[in-house]
Amino acid sequence: MNPIIKFIVELQDVTNLLWRALKGLRKRPRYFREIMIQMDEIGVGSLAIVALTGFFTGGVLIIQAYPTLAYYGAQSNAGQGVATSLIRELGPVLSALIVAGRVGSAISAELGSMVVSQQIDAMRALGTSPVRKLVTPRVAALVVTLPLLTIAADICGLIGGGLVAQQMYGLDVNTYISSVRTGTNIDDVLGGLIKPLVFGFLIGLISCHKGLTTTGGTVGVGRSTTQAVVASSIAVIISDFFLAKILQSALKTTLF
Amino acid sequence: MKNADGKLRAEAIASNIEGSRPPAIEFREVDLAFDDLVILDKVSFTVDRGETRIVLGGSGTGKSTIINLILGLLKPDAGRIMIDGQDITDFEDMDLMRIRKRIGMVFQEGALFDSLSVYENVAYRLHEEGIDEGEVEHEVMRMLQFVDLEDAVDKMPIELSGGMRRRVGIARALAGDPDIVLFDEPTAGLDPPTARNICELAIKLRDIESVTSIFVTHEMDNLGYLSNEYAVIDENGNVQFEREGNKLCMMNTSIMMLRGGRIIFQGTDEQLREVDDPYIRRFVSPSYV
Question: Which of A163, B99, B170, B254 has a CA 20 to 30 Å removed from the CA of A188?
């Protein structure tokens, strides 16, 4: 199939899945317990690696930025640089990429295995909608937990940046905190929380779609898992570009 | 039919045929193709209430497709599919869910949910329907008793042998007392004694529970068990299996053979063995040339 037509067909399938997943929230049974289990798996399960990633990203931002800032005598603004980069961009994007790798692959592999072992057919034969039972809880859990994980990554990143600034460059902690506070505004925080909402949707939908469309036995499970991670990561990075532009225009006009 | 109420049941089936009640399953001129590959070509048949229809045929002849069409997992390109007289061909997913709740399905490899225990697998449909846990527990134990697997209630599917997985699959399909049970090659890859156990469960379902079923297979041993043996309950309440004799003839089991998406035979096992068609002869007795 022509790659463009293939892309359009996939887009149609994902949109259709999104619509059915949303309908799954409206109709009974709603599988709240399943959503809680997924939130635990996705949210609590990813907290440590997301926090670690945030911490070292904050640290490396200071290592890269501090010497240049010091050159211009602006080292007291180091906290602002870390906060802006982390809260606006790196926190949401890195958390989403980590979650796409860890959770997206797990979702796709799990659903793919269920497809090849006929468990999805069995579920439908038993009168249950796999979209409502499997897709809706996973997407809902991702949409709720990814913003929370991003907050965790942001906080750990700020702590990491502060520690590196103090221990390696002798920057006063109060100066760092003050710089973070003055350099962060409501735009940054709102934008930094809206992005992971969208990323959660994308990762959940793409991973579930790739898993549910698995063909070709166990080899197919591996293939769809790889595709889920690659497609989710690319979707996160591309959508981040457009979201950054949209949020920049929208938030400035509404709030300031 | 030869068990205690055999005559009554035979009459019940006969009355279905006469048209007082619609057949449990009916296919009318059903066509299905994937691109240029014809899967089913003008397939028409009926399965009456309480009847077991054995569907024979080689790999890729459309046997499992028939089951998927009954469940609404596939849609035909043309023709109509009726369940209990209700035309389900154009049903939306929500309406199909309602129909599926009345149908039990036994998959080739069991298709048990790996993350759920045997208890949770068997209880799946009942939990989905929001039935009280006490009632669920009673029903699960009854079903596991039927397949002789009460001891495996707390095990996970990974701990079960192939035969046990199929039996749990049967218990899961039977939970909630469906009117129709579909078996999709349930003995594939099993050793002969285990395959026989699975057939005995299907015979028990047919003769003791009066359940309508479709049994898809390509193994002639299964055909032998299902069309020549029947189940009765002895004076101690135990199920006994006996072989068909000269006095009585099984009325609740018929055979259908598919080839290239077309039905090439419909009738009893005796009629099947008398057919002159070389393909059927070769299928029935592989040594025939």
Answer: A163
